[in-house]
Write a structure and sequence with these properties.
heterodimer; A: 816 residues; alpha+beta; 7-stranded antiparallel beta sheet; rod-shaped; disordered N terminus; B: 129 residues
Chain lengths: 816, 129
């Protein structure tokens, strides 16, 4: 219970020589002093007392002797001797000498130092009054000093024995009633101090010890109880302390390892703590800045305006709530370097709702994030290849310009450019050369504009310039000077050199009522007009421009085509592809052709709307319509068209559409049409322009069983190397060569060459535009495999073809 | 033999010698005590050694402790003091101090019986071992 060894040892020593020793010493000295006192008291006047005693005894002895002599009839010496002997012994005398009438009698030796008493007396022998005699007796007692010494011995021995006995008895009694219980209590206390906490003092006594024992036991019980409670509380405190220490360690480790800078201040905004990251970020050491105002360490400025911004700690301490930093804040270090930061200050209170005792400032280094954000923003708004603004950024700036435009006072001009020879460069020297051309052209553009103008790459080889606060005439002069500069420019790639041209369309932005889409469309139309007018020229957009009216006509087709798709107003026609050797033989093979049924029910030929559909990205929708409708028809007439083959034209847009191939495959699965029945036609120029996509498309669908034709072969002047890449089954010689091959030997030669190339590559050849038997005959001579054209069969609605076939089948089956 | 027992014997011998006037015994007594005090060949120690014990317990309430600063044993001092007191009180001033030998005798006897020797305690309190 009490385990302080120092206290315990000291208590043991004190106890060892305390009470019992003191009692013993007290008893001892009390006995000594008492014995001495009593002894001295008893021995006081001993000489006088002994003298008196001796005198009394001498008197008595003399009286007895006188009486003896009275009774004696005859004084015989012998009897007197005997009587003296008796009296000496009786009265303790050492010697007695008697003189009777001149006669002396003596018993005992007389010495000079003896106490001598003389007594005279008269006597009448035999009672005879007449016979009167006189005598004197000398009584000698022991010497006075010997008597005194003897008395002292007797007294001292007596007192010694008595007091020693009394002292021992008193010691025993005191030991019994005082020392022993006390020592018992001490022993018990010692045991309790040595952790025998269950021990208690004996309570069986009714004296003070019993009372004390009960009191102390009660106190011990209370102390034990309280000690248990204290131990419990102490355990809790220790646990709490350990928990707090762990929390503290965790917080310290966290603060040391955290990636954010953490700074704490007192209520006055003076720094108390910087974590290592804060030291690294601010460039200060905690020992240098402890106690200094936080604003001295955290010098924050606005990134854009370079003005100081309020420190969030000060705002936090003033307002008493969490304060975030403003956007784009820069921390200026002592060495002048700057760090982009985001910071948050939070108040520290002594308790919930208590007074502010400081603030904690968390500073996050966002330099990298901000740099990446700037980079991302730049990438999102700029073209990777040329470094110019991209279409989105250009349209954003254009929107602002349009909104600020006012007629006569604040006009802008949009310049839309299209490189004329880009495709040739790309085809001839590859995409890398094409990219380099675009870069060099961008550099030319960048060198010809003002800082306030914006130049952007809008598409593949399309560029735009927004001339801000620039009227159309000024812009036209700038555009023409740009033409001159481009004309001077020759693009050289390895051994090839190209003259590059650019077609430019200009549109004036003079009213905020114009829409950006209209302006871009007008600029595109003007650029197209410049290109149509012979390329490398400037065309200014005017509302009364005939060429532009045609373009606008195309634009109107967009809404018409969309509506036709919605209303399902397209029709499928079929034109037979027949073997040249015998057009009536062979399995039926048709090319599907599309017609539009206009709002009035008239058929519109494809040439009227296909260019508009191609220009305004509607070809994929039309191709999907064709595939879906055709497959549904084939599926519905599966018994009729079994063994037939149908060619379906696909546009370049569909080839580039990632989802189109999946659509075709899904449609095959949904309708159950056999892929062997389908032959997809891709024009030579489309295939070459989208070579990667076309190759993949052909590979996948050929794997399913489909066949492919390379349409309009000969017009694209493509490298024959492409033919090896494109694994097609048919080569369709362009109709422009076939149509007059009988009269034009050059075209015939082209047809012969194309036919030979196709055959050499394992393809079968198809001649288009076979309008008469003569052409058919010449094709036979050349060795072309198939023919298609009015000379073979005119296009007819698919439904009619199927109806005719369905009638022919029963006739054949009945033999009619 | 313990010092306590020896003190009982010493006290009893002195009282007996005083009572019976054994002067020679008292003179011898003084010589023995002086011899013990000077040589530290104390009888209890010698007897204890003869009995096989290493030391004779002082058995005095005040044990030598941290206060011992004089390199002289309290028991030796006691012997010398008793011898000196006896010389003074029994030989030199017997008429005036006739009681003192008796006092010494009773004191030694009482110290032996009670186990408390005030003189040894006093010596130890002064600083004897």
């Amino acid at each position: 219970m009490i385990s302080d060894p120092h206290l315990s040892a000291r208590a043991d020593n004190d106890v060892q020589s305390s009470l019992s020793t003191k009692i013993s010493v007290i008893v001892f000295w009390f006995m000594i002093v008492a014995g001495m006192g009593i002894s001295f008291s008893l021995l006081h006047n001993s000489e006088e007392r002994i003298t008196t005693d001796y005198a009394g005894r001498a008197n008595g002895l003399a009286y007895d002797l006188d009486h003896f002599l009275h009774d004696q009839a005859l004084l015989s010496a012998e009897r007197i001797e005997l009587e003296l002997q008796r009296l000496k012994l009786q009265y303790g005398a050492e010697a007695i000498e008697v003189n009777l009438n001149g006669k002396s009698f003596q018993n005992g030796q007389r010495r000079p130092d003896q106490a001598l008493f003389a007594r005279s007396f008269d006597f009448h022998p035999m009672g005879d009054e007449s016979a009167r005699g006189s005598g004197i007796s000398y009584i000698s007692f022991a010497p006075m000093h010997e008597a005194i010494a003897e008395e002292r011995k007797q007294v001292l021995i007596y007192m010694g024995v008595v007091l020693l006995s009394f002292g021992l008895m008193l010691h025993w009694v005191l030991r019994k009633i005082l020392t022993q219980p006390f020592q018992h209590m001490v022993q018990t206390a010692k045991s309790i101090t040595h952790d025998e906490t269950a021990l208690r003092f004996p309570e069986d006594r009714n004296d003070e010890f019993g009372f004390l024992a009960r009191f102390i036991n009660k106190a011990l019980d209370f102390i034990t109880l309280k000690q248990g409670e204290l131990r419990e509380a102490l355990d809790k405190v220790r646990l709490s302390e350990a928990s707090l220490r762990a929390e503290k360690n965790l917080i310290e480790v966290t603060l040391h390892s955290i990636g954010d800078a953490v700074i704490t201040t007192d209520a006055a905004g003076n720094i108390q703590y910087l974590n290592p990251m804060a030291e690294k970020l601010t460039g200060w050491k905690i020992d240098d800045v402890r106690g200094k105002p936080v604003r001295q360490v955290m010098q924050l400025i606005d990134e854009e305006h370079r003005r100081s911004v309020e420190n969030p700690v000060e705002a936090c301490l003033r307002d008493g709530h969490v304060t975030g930093s403003v956007e784009h804040v820069v921390l200026v270090r002592p060495d002048g370097s700057e760090v982009d930061v985001v910071n948050t200050a939070a108040p520290i209170r002594s308790e919930d709702g208590g007074p502010l005792i400081g603030a904690v400032l968390v500073v996050h280094d966002v330099s990298r994030a901000r740099r990446m954000a700037k980079q991302l923003a730049h990438q999102a708004s700029h073209d990777d290849l040329t470094g110019l603004a991209n279409r989105r950024e250009f349209e954003r700036i254009l929107t602002k310009a349009v909104n600020s435009a006012e007629p006569g006072s604040n006009e802008h001009t949009l310049c839309y450019m299209d490189l004329d020879q880009f495709k040739i460069v790309n085809d001839t020297c590859g995409h890398i050369a094409g990219d380099e051309l675009l870069r060099q052209f961008a550099a030319i553009l960048r060198g010809r504009i003002r800082e306030s103008d914006t130049v952007a790459r809008l598409g593949g080889d399309e560029f735009g310039i927004l001339f801000q606060h620039c009227e159309i005439d000024v812009a036209r002069r700038i555009a023409e000077s740009l033409l001159l500069r481009v004309k001077e420019f020759r693009f050289v790639w390895k051994e090839h050199a190209f003259d590059v041209g650019v077609s430019i369309g200009l549109v004036s932005i003079s009213s905020s009522q114009q829409s950006v889409t209209d302006i871009m469309s007008a600029a595109d139309v003007a650029c197209y007009a410049a290109k149509e007018a012979g390329r490398h020229r400037v065309h200014v957009y005017r509302l009364d421009d005939d060429e532009l009216k045609q373009r606008h006509g195309e634009m109107r087709w967009v809404s018409r085509l969309n509506k036709a798709l919605e209303q399902d107003r397209f029709r499928l026609y079929c034109q037979r592809i027949a073997p040249v050797a015998d057009v009536n033989q062979g399995n039926p093979h048709y090319e599907l052709l599309i017609r539009l049924l206009d709002e009035e029910g008239k058929l519109v030929p494809p040439l009227a709307f296909i260019p508009a559909a191609e220009r305004y990205n509607l070809m994929t929708s039309i191709d999907r319509w064709v595939v879906r409708k055709a497959f549904e028809a084939f599926s519905a007439n599966a018994g009729i068209v079994s063994g037939w083959r149908f060619s379906i034209n696909l546009s370049g847009q569909s080839l580039c559409d990632e989802t189109f191939m999946k659509f075709v495959i899904d449609t095959f699965k949904q309708t159950g049409v056999s892929p062997e029945q389908i032959c997809f036609e891709i024009t030579e120029t489309t295939a070459v322009a989208n070579l990667t996509q076309a190759t993949r498309f052909i590979a996948v669908l050929k794997g399913m069983g489909c066949r492919f034709s390379l349409d309009d072969f000969g017009t694209g002047l493509s490298s024959f190397g492409y033919l090896q890449t494109l694994k097609v089954d048919y080569l369709k010689i362009d109709g422009s060569f076939v149509r007059d091959m009988t009269s034009n030997p050059v075209n015939r030669a082209v047809v012969e060459a194309a036919n030979q190339i196709g055959h050499a590559m394992g393809m079968q050849t198809i001649a288009e535009f076979v309008e008469n038997g003569e052409i058919l005959r010449v094709l036979g001579e050349i060795g072309v495999n198939y023919a298609q054209g009015y000379g073979v069969a005119k296009p007819a609605p698919m439904e009619e073809i199927f109806a005719a076939a369905s009638q022919a089948v029963p006739q054949r089956s009945t033999g009619t | 033999m313990t010092e306590r027992t020896f003190r009982i014997i010493l006290g009893a011998i002195l009282l007996a010698a005083l009572y019976f006037d054994w002067r020679l015994v008292i003179y011898g007594y003084m010589v023995v005590l002086a011899f013990e005090g000077i040589t530290n060949w104390r009888i209890p120690t010698l007897v204890s050694r003869l009995q096989g014990n290493s030391t004779a317990g002082s058995d005095c309430a005040l044990s030598p402790g941290e206060k011992a600063r004089i390199n002289f044993e309290a028991e030796r001092a006691l012997r010398l003091a008793v011898a000196a007191f006896l010389v003074v009180s029994y030989i030199l001033f017997n008429k005036e101090l006739w009681f003192f030998p008796w006092f010494i005798g009773f004191a030694l006897f009482g110290a032996g019986l009670s186990g408390i020797c005030p003189m040894v305690m006093g010596f130890r309190w002064v600083g004897f071992r």
